[in-house]
């Protein structure tokens, strides 16, 4: 007899398992327990070990169909039937069969399935849906198998016939689970066979087809089937259920004879949550509100997670709860939205956690490296990637590849700078480049760039152009050679398999060799081990997992040779399927979608995104299915999961949702949440939705205590907020850094040292790498066509050459020759195409040059008397800093500086006049004067000569005399850098400049600066081009640090205040 046990308590299900296996022979596996995932397996084992004081070697399985198969072949006739027929129950194999049906155009309307990727993706979705049919919609299958149509309306027969045809073609050469069912039914006799298995315990509701087969097997073998399930909400008759689901859609009654045992019991915990459970099942009164049940509203999804983490921290710190007894859940469709925040914040507070969803796999560095490797096999335009700069650097910068070849971060940066300097575009070499469908005139391959690099290394040349100022200079040329060797090897290995076709198991062998050569997998890493397991599975694809099958498994498929694109689609699909089975042990907080945590008993459950419970669920690509069941509001399935989760939580259940941004206030309030709140209020209890601040450290939130709220935010942030209220911010000074090394500053980058001193000190002292993203922005794949803006090109041309020399030189032929050489060099480097209109560039360049020269003739005749000033700094400066002596070393050569006798001029070209930058220019010019005065005492003045490119006009806006330049300011400047770099408050040069614009008196600077520091600014946005080089642990170069983590002391020290006022007083009046 097929027995179903229904209850409302998960603990009752575990107790029932214990009762059923109590008399088992310990040396025989008499009972098979079928569960959905490994987490549930672990929970059952732990529970039974706890109540019995001993652990059992339970025979737990996860695949019902495999279990059916293994039991069925105990019967000789069924075994023979399976030997002579092919049974499809591996979704990967079924998908492959359907793929070839689509590929060979065996069905109608296949025009949309032209590419390998589209065909395989659709086949995979279709197979998953057929399995859902087996589970939920057996009537649909029965109708098709009877050669009938589900719809009476003939207008709908066209779409139904397409899906019906796919179903029939899929199983045309092999039997399916329904055929197996018919065969098993024919083997039923009056005599039952004894086998080792005595009973099968299924936890969770079975598919209807599985029930039918298992029921038939009971009549062939001496086994008993027990199905242990939580009571279906359609059978619960209470006010809350009636409010949540006004129209209940009852399921089709099973066609087999069942014995049902209903065991509905009250919950005994003494808290509000327990009374709510009892109210759901028996309409019993609710007890007083407490912190066991909360509904929490947040502004955003990330804020939902932040509040959730705060609540978990409160539980672990105050309630002594074990984190293994906490679950974070959400709807399956919301997984990708919540998981990044959950991982970020759990990691931030060092809380151990296990993710039961596939995102954990997809974000693995090993999986990413594997996908990047396979991507290099194929391009959209051919059979191999074009090996462009971006995808090569992305692959080599993956930590799994770096570890394989011992590549350092510095070596990667050398490669980025190398590829940028050599302007490498596509292709490994000339032969590869010629096969790509791009304009060959402006493409530089890796080999092109490497050859120029070697020439420069050997002969110390400046590219091939004597007139260019760009030197090729790398501190570690061996690193470039090493990385280029890896790239060449990768190309040659891939080319060996170009245009080849192999069987799936042969491709698995090949990709295994590539992984062994290029990616470092760790045997101790569960995801790396999972990859290896999946590769082994594909290696034995032709042999099948069931070695006791005598007949070859799908002979038409197993030896079929396929191209790499299909293998790649199969492998990626295989890797990402059923990834919840990866977790062999539940370590820490369990994170999983709500459909995967049924039948898990936990103390504390946090449910994110409950406003999405109102949403209907639809199956992709199957309009027929949606149309047939359009009268069923599938939110019933969501609510069913919600009720089961309410029953599963013993101590706390917190529901979170984000407030929508709709204008209609009724839409902003989630329907399901409102029904629960109104139901509770109708019993006389004044439950309120908790509305939390937008930030953990919002002082407004802490001004008064909230009734029944948990003040459980970040302890440090809470103390700061309370102290700020009382004006006691000085209590929270961070420990300052100690500077005690010789510190080298390149004068060309001294502005960066002031703008972001962390670049120069945190790397040295804390060994934290700060990534300069200025060149990473340019790492991108070149477009197929380049549109040259001649005006912009000439502006850049004037910026990289000595305009002063051109203007003084009256020989236009000489100018044109140099321009021609530069253009040739730009063409050679692939920056501009070979068919560029050189004549037009030179004509417009000369025209602009003559306009500038005429304006100089009129306004500044002394321009032609100037000589280039050769000023190089190599000086050690000692300063007294906090009772110790610090040594700064200033290195570098000043550029664009000219002089007449002892009068100095700084010349620069500006595209447009940005009036708001005047104060910045004054400060920068003064610093140049300071550097000159540090190098030589023979300076009368320094003037700024600005040439506006648009108007061709020349102007002298700023100047300083020798007397105005205080040589002591160099020490002041270095002390500022030392203070700012070792200070917990990040004071940046741009904040100082903004403050100077807002004040009229230098004494107001500290107050204005403090206001700027407290004002939150956006950090630099990390785009896709940076992700491959910027790691999470790196501090990015940006003008903002978290206000409460790095700005505990908002008071500028008196010594620093004096330095700032003395240095910047001269710049206030612009």
Automatic annotation (TrEMBL):
<keyword id="KW-0378">Hydrolase</keyword>
<protein>
    <submittedName>
        <fullName>Exodeoxyribonuclease V gamma chain</fullName>
        <ecNumber>3.1.11.5</ecNumber>
    </submittedName>
</protein>
<dbReference type="GO" id="GO:0005524">
    <property type="term" value="F:ATP binding"/>
</dbReference>
<dbReference type="GO" id="GO:0008854">
    <property type="term" value="F:exodeoxyribonuclease V activity"/>
</dbReference>
<dbReference type="InterPro" id="IPR013986">
    <property type="entry name" value="DExx_box_DNA_helicase_dom_sf"/>
</dbReference>
<keyword id="KW-0547">Nucleotide-binding</keyword>
<keyword id="KW-0067">ATP-binding</keyword>
<keyword id="KW-0347">Helicase</keyword>
<dbReference type="GO" id="GO:0004386">
    <property type="term" value="F:helicase activity"/>
</dbReference>
<dbReference type="InterPro" id="IPR027417">
    <property type="entry name" value="P-loop_NTPase"/>
</dbReference>
């Amino acid at each position: 007899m097929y027995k179903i046990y229904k209850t409302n308590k998960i603990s009752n299900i575990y107790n029932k398992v214990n009762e059923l296996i109590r008399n088992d022979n310990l040396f025989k596996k008499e009972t098979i327990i079928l569960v959905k995932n490994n987490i549930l397996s672990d929970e059952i084992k732990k529970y039974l070990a706890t109540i019995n004081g001993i652990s059992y070697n339970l025979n737990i399985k996860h695949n019902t169909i495999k279990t059916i198969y293994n039991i069925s072949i105990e019967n000789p006739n069924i075994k023979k039937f399976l030997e002579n027929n092919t049974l499809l129950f591996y979704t990967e194999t079924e998908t492959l069969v359907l793929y070839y049906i689509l590929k060979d155009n065996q069905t109608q309307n296949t025009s949309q399935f032209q590419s390998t990727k589209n065909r395989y993706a659709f086949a995979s979705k279709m197979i998953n849906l057929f399995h859902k049919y087996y589970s939920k919609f057996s009537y649909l299958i029965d109708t098709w198998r009877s050669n009938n149509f589900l719809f009476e309306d003939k207008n709908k027969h066209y779409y139904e016939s397409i899906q019906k045809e796919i179903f029939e073609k899929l199983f045309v050469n092999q039997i399916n689970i329904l055929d197996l069912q018919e065969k098993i039914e024919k083997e039923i006799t009056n005599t039952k066979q004894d086998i080792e298995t005595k009973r099968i315990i299924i936890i969770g509701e079975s598919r209807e087809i599985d029930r039918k087969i298992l029921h038939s097997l009971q009549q062939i073998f001496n086994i008993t089937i027990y199905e242990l399930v939580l009571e279906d909400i359609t059978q619960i008759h209470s006010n809350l259920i009636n409010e949540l689901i006004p129209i209940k859609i009852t399921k089709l009654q099973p066609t087999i004879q069942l014995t049902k045992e209903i065991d509905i019991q009250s919950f005994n915990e003494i808290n509000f949550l327990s009374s709510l459970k009892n109210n759901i099942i028996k309409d019993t009164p609710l007890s007083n509100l407490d912190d066991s049940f909360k509904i929490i509203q947040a502004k955003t999804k990330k804020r939902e997670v932040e509040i959730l983490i705060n609540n978990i921290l409160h539980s672990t710190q105050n309630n002594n709860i074990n984190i293994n007894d906490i679950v974070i859940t959400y709807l399956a469709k919301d997984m990708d939205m919540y998981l990044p925040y959950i991982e970020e914040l759990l990691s931030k507070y060092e809380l151990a956690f296990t993710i039961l969803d596939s995102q954990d796999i997809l974000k693995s560095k090993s999986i990413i490296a594997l996908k990047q490797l396979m991507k290099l096999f194929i391009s959209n335009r051919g059979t191999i990637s074009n090996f462009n700069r971006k995808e090569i650097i992305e692959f080599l910068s993956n930590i799994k590849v770096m570890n394989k070849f011992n590549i350092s971060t510095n070596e990667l940066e050398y490669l980025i700078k190398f590829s940028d300097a050599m302007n490498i575009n596509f292709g490994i070499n000339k032969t590869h480049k010629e096969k790509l469908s791009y304009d060959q005139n402006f493409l530089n391959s890796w080999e092109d760039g490497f050859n120029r690099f070697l020439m420069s290394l050997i002969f110390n040349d400046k590219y091939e152009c004597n007139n260019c100022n760009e030197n090729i200079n790398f501190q570690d040329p061996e690193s470039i050679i090493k990385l280029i060797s890896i790239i060449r090897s990768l190309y040659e290995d891939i080319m060996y398999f170009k245009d080849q076709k192999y069987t799936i198991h042969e491709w698995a062998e090949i990709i295994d060799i590539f992984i062994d050569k290029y990616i470092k997998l760790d045997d101790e890493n569960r995801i790396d081990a999972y990859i290896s397991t999946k590769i082994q599975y594909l290696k034995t694809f032709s042999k099948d997992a069931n070695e006791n099958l005598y007949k070859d498994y799908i002979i038409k498929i197993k030896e079929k040779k396929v191209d790499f694109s299909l293998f790649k689609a199969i492998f990626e699909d295989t890797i990402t399927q059923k990834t919840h089975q990866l977790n062999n042990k539940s370590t820490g907080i369990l994170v999983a979608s709500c459909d995967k945590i049924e039948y898990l008993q936990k103390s504390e459950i946090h449910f994110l995104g409950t406003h999405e419970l109102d949403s209907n669920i639809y199956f992709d690509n199957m309009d027929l299915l949606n149309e047939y069941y359009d009268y069923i509001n599938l939110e019933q399935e969501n609510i069913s999961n919600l009720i089961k989760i309410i029953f599963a939580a013993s101590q706390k259940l917190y529901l979170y949702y984000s407030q929508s941004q709709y204008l209609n206030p009724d839409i902003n309030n989630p329907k399901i949440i409102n029904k629960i709140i109104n139901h509770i209020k109708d019993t006389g209890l004044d439950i309120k939705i908790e509305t939390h601040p937008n930030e953990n450290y919002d002082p407004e939130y802490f001004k008064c205590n909230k009734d029944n709220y948990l003040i459980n935010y970040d302890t440090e942030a809470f103390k700061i907020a309370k102290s700020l209220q009382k004006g006691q911010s000085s209590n929270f000074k961070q420990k300052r850094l100690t500077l005690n090394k010789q510190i080298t500053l390149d004068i060309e980058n001294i502005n960066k040292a002031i703008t972001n001193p962390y670049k120069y000190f945190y790397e040295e002292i804390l060994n934290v790498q700060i990534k300069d993203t200025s060149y990473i922005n340019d790492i991108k794949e070149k477009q197929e066509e380049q549109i040259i803006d001649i005006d912009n090109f000439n502006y850049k041309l004037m910026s990289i050459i000595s305009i002063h020399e051109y203007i003084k030189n009256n020989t236009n032929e000489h100018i044109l020759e140099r321009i021609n050489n530069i253009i040739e060099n730009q063409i050679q480097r692939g920056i501009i195409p070979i068919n560029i209109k050189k004549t037009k560039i030179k004509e417009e360049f000369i025209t602009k040059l003559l306009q500038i020269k005429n304006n100089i003739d009129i306004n500044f005749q002394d321009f032609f008397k100037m000589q280039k000033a050769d000023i190089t700094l190599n000086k050690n400066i000692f300063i007294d800093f906090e009772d110790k002596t610090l040594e700064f070393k200033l290195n570098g050569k000043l550029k664009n500086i000219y002089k007449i006798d002892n009068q100095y001029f700084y010349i620069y070209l500006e595209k447009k006049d940005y009036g708001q930058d005047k104060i910045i220019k004054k400060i920068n010019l003064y610093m140049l004067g300071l550097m000159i005065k540090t190098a030589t005492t023979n300076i009368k003045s320094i003037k700024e000569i600005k040439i506006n490119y648009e108007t061709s006009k020349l102007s002298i806006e700023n100047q300083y005399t020798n007397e105005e330049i205080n040589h002591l300011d160099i020490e002041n400047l270095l002390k500022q850098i030392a203070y700012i770099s070792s200070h917990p408050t990040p004071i940046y040069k741009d904040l100082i400049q903004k403050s100077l614009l807002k004040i009229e008196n230098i004494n107001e600077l500290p107050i204005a600066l403090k206001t700027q520091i407290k004002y939150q600014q956006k950090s630099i946005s990390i785009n896709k081009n940076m992700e491959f080089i910027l790691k999470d642990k790196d501090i990015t170069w940006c003008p903002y640090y978290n206000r409460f983590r790095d700005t505990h002391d908002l008071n500028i020290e008196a010594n620093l205040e004096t330095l700032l006022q003395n240095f910047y007083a001269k710049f206030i009046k612009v």
